[in-house]
DNA sequence: TATTGTTATACTCTATAACTATA
DNA sequence: TATAGTTATAGAGTATAACAATA
């Protein structure tokens, strides 16, 4: 541990947090990866990925959406939604129901089982998120959410 | 617009922001995608991706790191760092310098051109980040950063 | 002609295992 | 034996183009 690399590395900034900590985006990215890892862990119990959890939750909350509408809500390409819907439909969590007067579209409807799974998963996710953010005060959590929403609405795109 | 899907979609939550807005993680993810898109746009002017910008910045700030150390700092696998270093070295922005007494390791050193590019890119990124977050008050920006850092340090893993 | 769902495809990102050369 | 860098590869995630059915 006497070579130049180690000497210089030893002089690195205190926090152990690197030279990019000055950027807000950096902090958000690192925080995100923690949240995503936690989310993936929780959803694994339900055999769901983050995106299929989101899709199922939206279908349960707004039954009757078409695939194009759901893809817009999820901000993904509708071509990439197909396999997600295939997966959820294959597990009988949702069905592709026909839409009156337009046989091109599918109305996405949750099954009873889909509703039950969504509610259980949502409960679990909310619970784990509460635990994950317990290191922040309730005021800080609220403030974080408020600031993020303000940013999101103002800066969108 | 008279079919069931549209009727129900019309009843969606006010903000236009979906049913998942209750989760902090959801807000962070959406905010992140805005920040990342902005960052990619800025760095395109320098032919850098986010990860190569981070790598170059760290090498400039802490010259002499080995690839394994840099991979740890970037939180990526060292196998995936190879092509990033290849790219930076191929553009003569950094060099793989030999390390005394250990011929396995490479000390990553910026060239003069690398230092200049890093500084220019950093300036540009900081400027664009300031503009992007101008929709928040200075106090909100500071609070966001503080809360994110507190979360990151407490919740890490 | 335009739109919906779909298929095919390509490109990036990420994770793992195994190799080589050095230690 | 263990470590640093490297290669190869496989799996996600994502974006684009084109097609069939339908409007």
Which secondary structure elements does this structure contain, and how are they paired or packed?
The structure is a homodimer of 157-residue chains.
Chain A: H1 4-10, H2 24-44, H3 50-61, H4 67-74, H5 78-90, E1 94-99, E2 102-110, H6 112-132, H7 138-155
Antiparallel strand pairs in A: 1-2
Helix pairs in contact in A: 2-6, 3-5, 3-6, 4-5
Chain A binds a DNA duplex (23 and 23 nucleotides) through helix 5 and strand 2.
What is the oligomeric state here? Answer: homodimer
Major beta sheet summary of chain A: 2 strands, antiparallel
Termini gap of chain A? 47 Å
Strand content of chain A: 5-15%
What is the CATH homologous superfamily assignment of the largest domain in chain A?
Answer: Winged helix-like DNA-binding domain superfamily/Winged helix DNA-binding domain
Question: Mean pLDDT score of chain A, rounded?
Answer: 90
- CATH fold category name of the largest domain in chain A: Arc Repressor Mutant, subunit A
Helix content of chain A: 55-70%
Overall SS class of chain A: mainly alpha
DSSP strand count of chain A: 2
Tally of individual domains of chain A? 2
| SSE ordering of chain A | HHHHHEEHH
Q: At CATH's second level, what is the architecture of the largest domain in chain A?
A: Orthogonal Bundle
Would you write up a description of this structure?
2 copies of one chain form a homodimer. Chain A is mostly helical. Chain A folds into 2 domains: 1-44, no CATH class; 46-156, Winged helix-like DNA-binding domain superfamily/Winged helix DNA-binding domain (Arc Repressor Mutant, subunit A, Orthogonal Bundle), CATH 1.10.10. Helices cover 64% and strands 10% of the residues of chain A. Chain A contains 7 helices and 2 strands. Chain A has helices at residues 4-10, 24-44, 50-61, 67-74, 78-90, 112-132, 138-155, and strands at residues 94-99, 102-110. A two-stranded antiparallel ribbon of chain A has the order 1-2. In chain A, α3 (50-61) crosses α6 and α4 (67-74) packs across α5 (78-90). The longest helix of chain A has 21 residues, at 24-44. Chain A is globular, with a radius of gyration of 21 Å. Mean pLDDT of chain A is 90; it is low at 1-15.
């Amino acid at each position: 541990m006497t070579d130049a690399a180690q000497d210089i590395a030893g002089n690195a900034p205190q926090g152990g947090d690197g030279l990019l900590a000055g950027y807000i985006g950096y902090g958000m990215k690192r925080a995100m990866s923690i949240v995503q890892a936690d989310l993936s862990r929780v959803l694994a119990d339900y055999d769901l990925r983050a995106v299929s959890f989101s899709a199922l939750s939206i279908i349960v909350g707004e039954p009757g959406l078409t695939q194009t509408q759901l893809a817009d809500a999820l901000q993904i390409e509708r071509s990439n939604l197909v396999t997600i819907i295939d997966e959820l439909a294959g597990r009988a969590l949702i069905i592709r129901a026909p839409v009156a007067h337009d046989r091109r579209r599918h109305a996405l409807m949750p099954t009873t089982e889909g509703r039950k799974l969504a509610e259980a998963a949502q409960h679990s996710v909310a619970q784990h998120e509460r635990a994950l953010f317990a290191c922040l005060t309730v005021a800080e959590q609220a403030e974080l959410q408020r600031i993020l929403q303000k940013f999101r609405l103002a800066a969108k795109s």
